[in-house]
Amino acid sequence: MTGTPAGGRAQPVGYQYVVVRCVPRADREEFVNVGVVLYCQARDVLACAFSVDPARLTALAPDLDQDAVTASLAAFDNVCRGAGVAGLAAEAPLGQRFGYLAAPRSTVVQPGPIHGGVTDDPHSELSRLLVRLVPGHTHREPGHRDARTSSGSRPMDAGTWDRRYQDVELVWGLEPNQFVRAQCQSLPVGVAVDLACGEGRNALWLATLGWQVLGLDFSVAAIERARALTAAQPEGVQRRLTWRVDDVTATTLHPSSVDLALLSYVHLLPDERHALVTAAARMVRPSGHLLLVGHDRRNLHEGVSGPQDESLLYEPLEVARQIVAVPGMSIDLARTVERHTDAGTALDTLVRARRLTD
Ligand SMILES: C[S@@+](CC[C@H](N)C(=O)[O-])C[C@H]1O[C@@H](n2cnc3c(N)ncnc32)[C@H](O)[C@@H]1O
Question: Which pick of 28, 131, 143, 221 has the fewest CB atoms within 10 Å?
Fold first, then answer.
């Protein structure tokens, strides 16, 4: 996977954005950038992303009402999502909603001037702007659940993934990932879980091999797409697939419940990543496998595409260490592998592990 939608690169289009600032005391003309709102008329995108560092705000204004900041950012988020606010209909056109958000206001959270640019991927551009313009921002992949986002909640980030999936017919294509195919094609079939399955390309392929697969993803649009793809499969394959909208960092992952736990390009912050890898390893039954593939840390400087934030990336030995900390788990392979894409060579982490029989 390259981060490039199947079907090639989209044409560059113009967009507008405003930086969202927290202005604790307008009289002192001091502010901290806390987010970005991006509007792209050509792609029908109105999206926002926030990253608030409470410590920085407290340093600037010790008596700042942080709840008021959170509430203001949630209002920005609501307008982007079409949830509607007083004086602005939920179904107002995106341009009108952007105009509303970009209008000067005298509250603790204010938009800066409108700027413009050109991009072939408005959602990725939003992440890049956040990284470039908001101090202390540590997470650059759209879709990630960040406790410091406007609402502090996971739906906002699942929503960003929803918009991404809604923008493009098949974001990651129909074929399974090449490493998933190579590593799983000769495994004895059984029960599999595909954690953060996206549109389900890997789960669908496993089901055609005879696996009984549960695909979980927190994006409603992704799961809807997976269900639609399933409906086009022969009945036997359909029966083997179950899809569920769920947050893999919050749901119960039952120990010793699957013969294959699959993690394919799930990029989380370190603590959540560690917890998920550990939980996935625990899910594996004796003789079963865990397969993990994701963008490698080396990709940042030596490869193409993928998240540009080191903290979200994988490192084979780190993953292997986390897996073997789970009793009974043993590593089959853990290495950095090359994936050739239209944009160049990407580097992925590939780890396969198994649970030894008792
Ligand atoms: C890069 S895509 C990979 C999709 C799929 N695994 C594949 O390889 O085609 C990452 C997916 O992770 C999902 N995701 C991210 N964080 C998640 C979470 N906490 N719970 C469930 N899904 C999550 C996103 O919605 C997105 O579909």
Answer: 28
